[in-house]
Amino acid sequence: MALVDYIKDLRQAVGNMPLIICAVGVIVSDSNNKILLIKRSDDGNWCIPGGVMDVGESIQETAIREVFEETYMNIGELKLLNVYSGKQQHHIYPNGDEVYFVNVVFFTSTYSGQFKPDGIESDEIRFYSIDELPDKISPTNKPFIEDFKKLSSKNQSL
């Protein structure tokens, strides 16, 4: 079953009522410890690549697929950063759909391909210094980025 149909069917049944959704995010860093962010088309916020798990898909498969769909990049070794849930992962989309994410967040510095926006979910894609991020970071992403910043300051060879 395609995810679009799955979520669409759920939304027809529950309207904008909050859903608990399993999602994944990937912090892609370059050799200068800059992280890849995408500017979302729907709300203009910057966030790491990621998205919602398809039915029957593993979380690692979701990570690989979502990064490719949103950036056209292939990623390599995934290292688990953390799992995030609760009030910090509450999001209301511009159309009123409400979700609480259970977000599994990985990081990697292994990637290939030339990134470009997909024109659907992302308007811009850029590497940013972890210390000089854009102002409009998606609120659900702030804990991931802070944790990665702490980790990278402890271990320069991520």
From TrEMBL:
Gene3D superfamilies assigned: Nucleoside Triphosphate Pyrophosphohydrolase (3.90.79.10)
PROSITE patterns, per database record: NUDIX
Membrane-spanning parts: none
Keyword Hydrolase in record: yes
Keyword Hydrolase listed: yes
Record-annotated Nudix hydrolase domain positions: 18-150
InterPro entries hit by this protein: NUDIX_hydrolase-like_dom_sf (IPR015797), NUDIX_hydrolase_dom (IPR000086)
One Pfam family matching this protein: NUDIX
Keywords: Hydrolase
The protein's required cofactors: Mg(2+)
Protein name per Swiss-Prot or TrEMBL: Nudix hydrolase domain-containing protein
